[in-house]
Write a structure and sequence with these properties.
The chain is 59% helix and 5% strand. By secondary structure, it is mainly alpha-helical. The chain has a single domain (26-175), classed as Cobalamin adenosyltransferase-like (Hypothetical Protein Ta1238, Chain: A, Up-down Bundle), CATH 1.20.1200. The longest helix is centred in the last third of the chain and has 26 residues, at 116-141. This is Cobalamin adenosyltransferase.
């Protein structure tokens, strides 16, 4: 089963470079490392979200997502390898469909808030979007597979939907934007 870390403080990054899974050294400011860092940050925020009281199905989905994000990070750390499979994107598509069907149709923009769990899901969503932007930028410089970009795109959408689900989990609702249009009675 692959390499295991036996030493954390190696001091090999003191000069501003870091090692990839293929033993190549790259700048810690490279697009690849930015994308990797964003995926790691996203996974960490999902871990924080998992400390909240959640419906069992949402919890199981988020745990599975954490494993897929680790695969995505592994793929980013080993140029040319494919660890995140296209089926992972299909799983998110199915979850999006299932959870969307349970929610009322959006009538207005919503603010990132409500319950603590929903607010954390929105933080995860924004980090997923940043990770997606860095993966897109990396893909413009180097050849990468489609699944990482697609996965992050679907995941950010799913996290938005899950925030809505989590706001309703305790009987609440979305936090709606107090728009000028609504204050005027809906006139465009």
């Amino acid at each position: 089963m692959g390499h295991r870390l036996t030493q954390i403080a190696t001091r090999t990054g003191d000069a501003g470079t870091t090692g990839l899974g293929n033993n190549q050294r790259v700048s810690k400011n490279s697009l690849r490392i930015h994308a990797l860092g964003d995926v790691d940050e996203l996974n960490s925020f999902i871990g924080l979200l998992l400390t909240e009281p959640l419906p069992d199905d949402v919890r199981a989905l988020l745990v599975a997502i954490q494993h897929e994000l680790f695969n995505l990070g592994g793929e980013l750390s080993m140029p040319g390898h494919q660890l995140l499979q296209p089926e992972a994107v299909l799983t998110l598509d199915q979850a999006l469909q299932d959870y969307n069907e349970r929610l009322p149709r959006l009538q207005e923009f919503i603010l990132p808030g409500g319950t603590r769990a929903a607010a954390l899901a929105h933080v995860c969503r924004t980090v997923a979007r940043r990770a997606e932007r860095h993966v897109v930028a990396l893909g413009q410089e180097e050849a990468i597979h489609d699944a990482p970009r697609q996965y992050l795109n679907r995941l950010s959408d799913l996290l938005f939907v899950l925030a809505r689900v989590l706001n309703r989990h305790g009987g609440g609702d979305d936090v709606y934007w107090n728009s000028e249009r609504l204050r005027r009675g809906g006139a465009a």
